Amino acid sequence: MHSVTLDVLDLRLLHALQLDGRAAFSKIADVLGVSDRTVARRFSRLRTTAIARVAGVTNSHRTGHAEWLVRLRVLPPGIAPLARALARRPDTAWVTVASSGTEIVCIFRVTEEGPAPLSLLGRLPQVTQVDAQRLLRPVMDHRWIGRTSALTDEQIATLRPAVTADTTPVPLTDLDRRLLPALAADGRAAYPDLARQVGWSESAVRRRLDELRRSGVLQFDVEVDSGLFGFSVQCLLWLTVTPARLSSIARTLAGDPEAAFVGSTTGPHNLVAIAVCQDANALHTYLADRIGSLDGVDRMETALITAYIKRAAPALKERSSACTHQTAQRVNDFCQRA
Predict the structure, then answer these.
(1) What phi, psi does 220 have (nearest 5°)?
(2) Is 325 helix (H, G, I), strand (E, B) or coil?
(3) Most buried among 44, 80, 112, 281, using CB within 10 Å?
(4) Helix (H, G, I), strand (E, B) or coil at 169
């Protein structure tokens, strides 16, 4: 993938889709000053070569779901099958391998403020340590700036859809529970295809999708590797911050160009972040000179992200595993208990 070069039009198209993942190609073309056919052809190339994927993402805070950040220390032979099993579960998001294949970090989304389903994980022989902390509040209200800086302010204003300022939970309907997974798999699926998948009329699907978007329940994310933008290092940061400085430091970090995510958590580390840097030297500079200079950061722990197994969208078809039959069966049992 990293042998691919993105040109200016690719970058603008990706930025446009990040603003509105279901924007009509005609609208994007008009904003970018190119033809509809050019936009459609470029997106088809990005999608078919697995460079970019548009996924529908549910806002957990609007649906009343709790999010648990789970960190697993795993024996290296068990990493691949366990990560894939986690990615297959419908209640996980953002499954990553970290620390050169010795850790898995993922997010569990559970209903009604419930606990993360960890009982079976702790019994897997390849898992040596389990840590789970509740994600309390995301601080950033924007995506990583490295992939959202190709358009002008005027172009952004034209493409960005309107959403409500209401933050009260929205109860999901039976249609939602069928529609949201379909949009997670393909955020740009056509209305007739969505109607066939969920077994509802096209008009009902169109109307409900619009309601979910306007309410902020449904958003769209463009999954694309940061390495294609020239940033090869991503790092998880666990920070222990003086309580009186927690909010101000979180807002400060959220404004950094390196920040891809900042949120408060429970546990000994009360702030978690993801930093995206050009290389290891740039990461060192960010950790030492930027975070090290912040008054109120008492402790920091870091882990380099080795690979993404699942981001927002459902995992793609997996390759065969070389794990033992016993390990594979136990991992499969965990997946099936979702």
Answers:
(1) -130, 140
(2) helix
(3) 80
(4) coil
Q: Report the pLDDT value the prediction gives residue 63, as an integer from 0 to 100.
A: 86
SS3 242: coil
What is the chain's percent helix, strand, coil content, to nearest 5?
A: 40, 25, 35
Q: What is the pLDDT of residues 159-218, one digit of tens each?
A: 998 877 677 778 899 999 999 999 999 999 999 999 999 999 999 999 999 999 988 899
Query: Which of these, 219, 204, 78, lies nearest to 138 by C-alpha position?
Result: 219
Instruction: For tokens 């958590």, name the residue.
Output: 265
pLDDT band at 143 (very low <50, low <70, confident <90, very high): confident
Separation of alpha carbons 76 and 102, rounded Å: 5
End-to-end CA distance of the chain: 32
219 within 8 A of 253, measured Cβ to Cβ: no
The C-alpha atoms of residue 219 and residue 217 are separated, in whole angstroms, by 7
**Residue whose entry in the numeric block shows the structure tokens 């697993």:** 72
pLDDT at 334 over 90: no
Residues 6+ apart with CB under 8 A from 323: 77, 78, 80, 81, 331
Q: What is the pTM of this model?
A: 0.86
Q: What is the pLDDT of residues 75-103, one digit of tens each?
A: 999 999 999 999 999 899 899 999 999 99
Whole-number Å distance between alpha carbons of 98 and 105: 7
